[in-house]
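Quick review question:
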C-alpha cells in the first residue's frame, strides 16, 4: 500500500457526517482528490468547504447507494475523468432498530441487508476495475459490529459486508484491503444504538480518522485497531 500522495483519487462513502466525513477531510488535507458520496447534500457541501480551506479538492456525489444504475453511472464517470481509483473508504451502513431476534421487522432486516451488505458487493463490482488501474490500489472497511444482544440485524449485515470484502481481497491480489476496528465514537449511528449515553467518554471521529491515515501512510496492513495510536 502506497503512502498518501497529492495525486491520488479517493472515494469515500458516507462522507457527509461521522467517521466518513472525518476520513474524507483527512484525505483532502493530505492532497488527495476526494470523491465524496452521501445522500445528505448539506453535509457534503460543508465537507467541500472544509476541504477547500485546507487546499484540497472534492467531487460531491449526492447518491443513494442502493440505486444500482446510479452506481454504474458513477463508475463510468470516474473512468472517463480519471481512468482509475487509488483508494476506497467505505463507511456507509444502515442503522436498524435494536430488536430481539424473534421480533425483527422484515422491512428493517431487508433495508439493513440491502444497504450494508448488498451495496458493498455492488460497489466492489463497479470499483474493482477502476482500482486495478491504480499503481497501489487500496480499500478500507470497518469492523464495528457490537455485541449480539439486540444488535443481530446490524451485526449480521456487517458480517455479510466483511465476508464480501475479505473474499474479494483474497481474489484480487493487486488490491490491498484493510479492515479497521474503530473505538466507540459519538456518531449518529452510535446515538441510535445508545440513546442518552454520556458522549464525552467517546472518541472523536477526527482522532480516529487521523489514526487511520497514520496507519495507511505506514504501509500495508490487513487489520488495524484504531482504538490506539499506530
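Suggested answer, residue by residue:
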Amino acid at each position: 500500500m502506497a503512502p498518501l500522495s497529492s495525486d491520488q483519487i479517493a472515494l469515500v462513502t458516507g462522507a457527509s457526517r461521522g467517521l466518513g466525513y472525518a476520513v474524507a477531510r483527512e484525505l483532502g488535507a493530505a492532497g488527495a482528490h476526494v470523491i465524496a458520496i452521501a445522500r445528505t447534500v448539506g453535509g457534503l457541501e460543508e465537507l467541500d468547504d472544509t476541504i477547500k480551506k485546507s487546499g484540497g479538492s472534492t467531487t460531491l456525489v449526492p447518491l443513494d447507494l442502493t440505486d444500482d444504475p446510479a452506481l454504474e453511472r458513477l463508475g463510468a464517470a470516474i473512468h472517463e475523468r480519471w481512468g482509475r481509483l487509488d483508494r476506497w473508504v467505505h463507511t456507509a451502513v444502515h442503522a436498524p432498530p435494536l430488536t430481539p431476534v424473534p421480533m425483527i421487522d422484515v422491512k428493517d432486516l431487508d433495508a439493513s441487508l440491502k444497504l450494508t451488505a448488498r451495496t458493498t458487493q455492488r460497489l466492489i463490482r463497479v470499483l474493482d476495475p477502476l482500482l486495478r488501474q491504480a499503481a497501489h490500489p487500496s480499500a478500507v472497511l470497518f469492523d464495528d459490529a457490537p455485541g449480539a444482544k439486540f444488535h443481530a440485524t446490524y451485526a449480521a449485515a456487517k458480517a455479510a459486508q466483511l465476508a464480501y470484502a475479505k473474499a474479494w481481497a483474497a481474489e484480487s491480489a493487486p488490491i490491498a484491503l484493510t479492515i479497521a476496528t474503530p473505538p466507540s465514537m459519538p456518531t449518529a449511528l452510535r446515538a441510535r444504538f445508545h440513546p442518552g449515553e454520556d458522549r464525552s467518554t467517546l472518541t472523536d471521529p477526527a482522532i480516529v480518522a487521523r489514526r487511520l491515515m497514520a496507519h495507511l501512510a505506514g504501509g500495508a496492513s490487513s487489520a488495524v485497531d484504531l482504538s490506539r495510536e499506530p
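Why it works: The chain has a mean pLDDT of 92. The radius of gyration is 17 Å.
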